[in-house]
Amino acid sequence: MAQVIRRDDAAFEQRVQALFTRSAFDPETETAVAAMLTAVRTRGDAALTEFAQTYDHVTLPPSEFRVATTEVAAAAGQVDRRTQQAIRAAVRNLTAFARRSLPPDWRFSPRPGVSVGERFTPLSRVGCYVPGGTAPLISTVVHTAALARAAGVPQIVLATPPGPDKQINPALLFAASAAGVTEIYRLGGVYAIGALAYGTASVPRVEKIVGPGNAYVTAAKRQVYGQVALDLVAGPSEIMIIADASAEARFVAADLLSQAEHGSGREQAVLVTTAPALIDAVLAELAAQSTTLSRSACVRQVLAKGVYLIEARDLNEATDLANRYAPEHLEIMTRRADAVGRRITAAGAIFLGPWTPEPVGDFVAGPSHVLPTGGAARCFSGLTVGQFLRRLSVVRYSRSALERETPHIEAFASAEGLDAHGRSARIRVARPTRPSRARQRT
Q: Which residue of the set 329, 331, 358, 369 is catalytic?
C-alpha cells in the first residue's frame, strides 16, 4: 500500500528528498535504445519489419506500414456515437484553446529608421507519437494533432503500435481523422521514433516529434534530438495533490488512482496535506476504490511503490514541496485554492478546486495533456500550439539608421576580430572617394 511520510518522522527530509530525486535516465535503457536507433538509421524498412515482429508480434512488410485511407474511413462505423461525440468535443476545445494561444505577427520601430518584429510560420511536417501498450491513448491523438492543425501544419503524421491483428483501434483512427492527421503508420516504440527522425524508403522523415511515451520512447526522443526537433521529455505519468482539511478523501483517492492505472508501473501519485487525519482517510479510500477498478493489477503495482502520502507543516511547506517536486499534474484541493496556486512556480499543469479533477485535463479541458514529467517541469513547459511554429525575426534599417549605428557595429567587429563584419556596414554608408584629376587624365 501507499508509503506514508509523517512530519514527525526523524528521516522526513531524507525520505522526501529520495522521492524528489527521481530520474528518467537509465543506462541500460539508453544502450538498448541506441542500438535500435542505429539499426533503423542504417537498415531502414528491414529494421522496422524486424522490430515490429520482435516487439509488437506482427509480420509487417513495408507495404503495410501506412494505414490505408479506406481503413481510416471505415473506422467511423465501428465507433459508438457517445465516443464520437466525446472526441469531437475534445477537438473543439483543444482547437479553441490553441487558436487563442497562437502568437500574432508583429512589428514596431524602436528607433528612427529601424523596424523589427517577428513572423510565425507553421512547420511543414510533424510526427505525433501515440503510445499503445495496455491502453489506446485516443485522447493523445487530439492533444497533439489538433494543435498541429490549429498551427497550420500541412502534413501531420501519426505513429502508433498495432495490435496483434495489425489493426489500430477504430476510435483512435476516428480521432486522427477528426484532429486533422494526414498520414498514419502502424509503428510503435523506439523503432517508430527512429523512422520519424531518420526516415526510411517507406516513411518520410519529419521535422519535429511530439507526444508522450514510456521510458524507451523517452530515451529514443532524447537520442534523436538534433536530427529532429522535440517537444519535451514526457515519461510515465505522475500527479501531486495539495490538500487541507477541507478536501474530500474519496476525491483525493480517486484522483491518485487515476494516474496509477496507466500501466507502466513507474507512475507516481503523491498527496501533500496539512491535515494528518486526511492521510488515514485516503488510505482507507485507496484500499476500497482500488479493488473496484478494471486495471487493478496495474494499480496494485503503483500502490506498492509509487504512491506517497506526505504530511506538511502548513501550506507554505506544501507549496515548497510541490515546487521542488515539479509535478506533471498538480491538483490543489484547499480553501482559497487560487491563492495557493499562485505560489506554484513549477508544474506541468495546475488544477484548482474540488471540481477540477486531473482527467478533465487528460481529455477535454483545452490545454494539451502532453506535459513534462520526472521533475522536468522545472525547465520545460507542456506542449503548445506555438511549438508547431517557426519563429522568424524580421529587421529593416534605413540608410540614416545604418549610418547612426555603424560605429557600434564597427566597434563590435573590431573587438571580436571580424573586420569583414564591420566593412559590410561601413561600405554602405561611407562616401565614395573620387579619383584625382591626375588619375582621370591618365
A: 329
